[in-house]
Specification:
Number of strands of chain B: 0
Shape of chain A: globular
CATH class of chain A: Alpha Beta
CATH superfamily of chain A: P-loop containing nucleotide triphosphate hydrolases
Number of domains of chain A: 1
Largest interface: A-B, 36 and 31 residues
Radius of gyration of chain B: 21 Å
Order of helices and strands of chain A: EEEHEEHEHHHEHEEEH
Number of helices of chain B: 8
Oligomer: heterodimer
CATH architecture of chain A: 3-Layer(aba) Sandwich
Distance between the termini of chain A: 35 Å
Number of strands of chain A: 10
Amino acid sequence: MSRIEFDRVSHDFGAEPIVDGVSLSLTEHRVGIVGANGSGKSTLARMINGLVTPKSGRVEVDGLDVARRGREVRRRVGFVFTNADNQIVMPTVREDVAFTLRRHKLPAEDAAARVEATLERFGLTALADRPAHRLSGGQKQLLALASVLVADPALVVADEPTTLLDARNARLVAEHFAALEQQLVVVSHQLELLDDFDRVIVMESGRVVADDEPLPALAAYRALIG
Amino acid sequence: MIGVFHPGDSLVHRAPALVKLGLLAVAVTVVALQGSLLALGVAAVATALLFLPAGLPARAVWGQIAPILWVLAFAVPVQWLFAGWEAAATMALRLVIAVALAALYTLTTPVTATLDAMQTLLRPFRRWIDADRVGLTLALAIRCVPLLADIVREVLEARRARGAEGSIVALAVPVIVRALQTADHLGEALIARGFDD
């Protein structure tokens, strides 16, 4: 498993601190982050692959400083966004999965084989030549996950990946997340998604207010939000 | 280009995109310069015959060519009125042939193949032009068409729900704001997928 280190990390968007002196060391297989809107959980997740650079403090992944060696870190860390529409770049499903590998400079046969295997794994083979923007919400989120995993990252960070989905599609996407061998950091409002995680962090006003196994941590969060 | 590709194994599908692009450019130029109605008629038949080996569904082909017929329904009478029937027929044949050839290309060529072809074309100029970046820009431009269409559709629905159907401001402001937000998110997604230089 990768080691993710937050060392006295702070960030703000103006006057209000959004992350306030957070220090954490994450080495577990599956880590959940919960918190109310504006609690700083998404900003914390975005720091793991350098989408947000902290104004003070340091974030490291396997000893690599994310601020200075972001490109190397992003080769290890895949990121799944809330709205898959914002993540899809190419017109068809197969082309979007293949797009991730363009920067990996693999031989064409190897790249094609990886794309087909990934499409198969996520049940997207039958949709491979369909226009990506015409998929259902659940299919789009599976495509977003496939497009990340085709590069075989060591760690996957997901920011509310099921928030925009109906119950059935949310369950389908959650099942795929549960089956991942990769280390996983998931920000979510859907607490049942985190029930069998190894660790859950509760954020409030930019600070960590609970950090425990799911049962006590989620109980603390439920008490916090009333 | 926006997801109209129809997979297949025909000779037209398997021909390299660069060759198809070159032939398309030459054919459209020749048709544009051709003034003889007879020659254009022959070209129209030849174009129709090119679709046969591709084995494309008639509905998909019609979907690509039909929009130009709507334009011609207005343009041909005007041209006939001011320049005569021969000029009108020449213009109509030129446009239909050009659109049909372009449709044959887009229906049989995936966008990635077009991007690769563009990058190959730009390779001799790599000292001055970053071919990868041009390819990515083209891909994003193509991707943004349905994204923007969705934004406009949603904003139009919201405007109607608020009873502000006639208001330009109620259309323009949210569309521009959401388009800029979408551009930000797309940029973030590209960085996350390793396109960060």
